[in-house]
Specification:
- The chain folds into 4 domains: 95 residues, ATPase, nucleotide binding domain (Nucleotidyltransferase, domain 5, 2-Layer Sandwich); 145 residues, Rossmann fold; 197 residues, Nucleotidyltransferase, domain 5, CATH 3.30.420; 108 residues, no CATH class.
- The protein contains 18 helices and 23 strands.
- The protein is globular, with a radius of gyration of 26 Å.
- The two termini are 48 Å apart.
């Protein structure tokens, strides 16, 4: 069966509140290729109240592009592919709908089971309503009110190391069941137990037919050991089941899938873990930035480990909730054009009322670029705070989002990402122009070859390899000479000055050798320890970039000087 799965056509659906995207993959010349993609507005809200309408519109476009037929005469999706070429072998779905599903966490000790449970939930896209611990000081009436008023969709219980005591856990389970029975049957939460599995018979007997129940492996089997993935997988599976009840047409689509649909938070982590293990040389740390229309998310992978963090707002969704906490002075400072406080406020207020507004002036675009940088920077800092053990050095960054595809040029996209987290070492920046990475994560579970083939293609484009050069020299002084040697033997010398950034015009896909001749004491990523002997690099959409602006990035305090240097940096990277 596995052999068949890995040589089959795949139709992938990526669905969120606003946009539904469809991707069709097939084998050409013994490799998987993205044959066609399309998108339509999601139809989960009135007047349709059924996501199948939007999916159908997007698939119709795929049919027009490819000449294939995916529906039968009755309007049902054809699976598997037929001898006449109609239909598709496998359907996969990945979904957003951030905060659409709510959860309450329950554990014994805050420093053990609840700590592990909350760590797990922080990497999901669920709305975490509350937590209940063994030492919770609230009255029973308050706990009851939590369930009867907020109506959580899911409750996950952890606690009790393997072969541990049972009394405390069973007391909590009994208390929860008492509260849940006071909720109307059709609104009762799904119960997941991820504690000491020795108590499975007692818990199953207690739950009975009160509510839906699943048991998974203990997420904290011992004091010093965590086992989060079984619970994480179960939560993702239950999410899809609950979404099928909340959103019209979702469960009917899911029936055609090989595996249960997976949330974006799950599929992006699959890919960042996968890419960190797949990385050549020492490029083990991968960061995926998805600046979506309604959610901004980061997913990071390191040698098989991963994390995920998201904010349930964006420039096109819930911007009004963000504005009170946005530092307007910081927007003005980061904008490469001189903009006023009133101009910034008016543009953002108008955008919060009309989310699909497109910047019509250079100043508006500069404001949008500055806000984008700030939002990514804030989320990245939050990620480092939540996961202090995660490596600070990122070697690969993949960025996605309509704003990078349609609003910014390649150079503007590169600078926005670069300035949002200021890498200390060499970093390779990629542009996911289709927002395809979550889809590849969903497919990876059934087809190990397809994601590799697509990552090796031009679907995810190389923006640039960026080499930071640090020095304590005065701004404007020469610190190095970079020599770019092309395949035909031609050489170009570029003088590097402290405080500047340079775009070396290496055509996309072309290999060059780079030599760096220091003119003073400089600090470069150890990966380039033989920089005076030359090292091979591939050009991207922005060639190769040398960043000598220093770390951290220090902008002039004087307004005019600050705008002048920001303008120069922008021109250096412009398309």
């Amino acid at each position: 069966m596995k052999e068949n799965l890995e040589t089959s056509t795949v139709l992938a659906i990526k669905i969120d509140r606003m946009v539904t995207k469809i991707f069709f993959f097939d084998i050409v010349d013994e490799k998987y290729h993205l044959i066609a993609s399309s998108e339509a507005r999601t139809t989960s809200e009135p007047p349709f109240n059924d996501v199948r309408e939007g999916v159908s519109h997007a698939i119709d476009r795929i049919q027009q592009i490819t000449g294939r037929h995916f529906y039968d005469d009755e309007g049902s999706l054809i699976t598997p592919m037929q001898s006449d070429g109609s239909g598709v072998d496998h359907l996969v779905i990945t979904f957003g709908f951030f905060s659409k599903i709510s959860i309450v966490s329950v554990g014994l000790l805050e420093s053990i089971s609840l700590e592990s449970l909350n760590k797990l939930l922080a990497t999901t896209q669920l709305a975490h309503l509350d937590q209940i611990g063994m030492n919770d000081s609230r009255k029973l009436e308050e706990i009851i009110a939590l369930f009867t008023n907020k109506l959580p969709d899911m409750v996950v219980i952890a606690g009790g190391v393997n072969e541990g005591a049972a009394r405390s856990i069973m007391r909590q389970v009994d208390m929860l069941l008492f509260c849940i029975k006071l909720v109307p049957r059709d609104k009762r939460p799904y119960l997941i137990f991820s504690g000491n599995s020795d108590f499975e018979p007692q818990i199953r007997e207690s739950v009975g037919d009160i509510t839906n129940f699943q048991l998974t492996q203990n997420l904290r089997p011992s004091i010093n050991h965590e086992n989060l993935m079984p619970a994480y997988n179960m939560i993702s599976q239950v999410q899809a089941e609950i979404l099928g009840h909340k959103i019209g047409g979702f469960s009917q689509l899911s029936m055609h899938c090989v595996l249960s649909p997976l949330p974006f938070s799950h599929t992006t982590q699959i890919m960042t873990r996968f890419l960190s293990l797949l990385s050549k040389n020492k490029e083990k740390n991968v960061l995926y930035i998805d600046f979506g229309k309604e959610v901004i998310s980061l997913s990071a992978g390191n040698e098989g480990n991963s994390t995920f963090l998201a904010e349930d707002y964006s420039l096109n969704y819930k911007l009004n909730t963000l504005l009170p906490n946005l530092n307007i002075g910081e927007v003005i400072k980061k904008s490469h054009l001189p903009v006023t406080e009133e101009e910034v406020k008016n543009f953002l207020w108008d955008l919060s009322i009309h989310p699909n507004t497109i910047p019509t002036t250079e100043n508006h675009l500069a404001i949008e670029k500055a806000v984008t940088e700030i939002l990514i920077q804030n989320l990245y800092r939050k990620m480092l705070t939540k996961w202090p053990d995660f490596p600070l050095t990122i070697q690969q960054v993949i960025v996605s989002g309509e704003i990078f595809q349609n609003h910014f040029g390649y150079g503007e996209s590169l600078q926005t990402i670069l300035d949002s987290f200021m890498p200390d070492g060499i970093v390779t920046l990629y542009l996911d122009q289709h927002g395809i990475l979550p889809v590849l994560g969903a497919i990876a579970a059934i087809n190990r070859y397809l994601p590799i083939h697509i990552m090796d293609s031009s679907v995810i484009a190389l923006l640039a390899k960026v080499i930071p050069i640090k020095s304590n020299a005065k701004p404007g002084s020469e610190i190095a000479v970079v020599i770019t040697e092309f395949e035909d033997g031609n050489r170009i010398e570029t003088k590097i000055e402290q405080g500047m950034i340079y775009r070396l015009h290496v055509p996309a896909g072309q290999m060059v050798n780079l030599y760096i001749e220091p003119k003073t004491k400089i600090d470069i990523d150890p990966a380039t320890k033989n920089f005076n002997k030359g090292f091979p690099l591939q050009g991207g959409l922005c060639g190769v970039v040398i960043d000598a602006r220093g770390r951290p990035l220090m902008l002039p305090k004087d307004f005019q000087k600050r705008k002048e240097i920001q303008k120069i940096w922008g021109l250096q990277l412009s398309d």
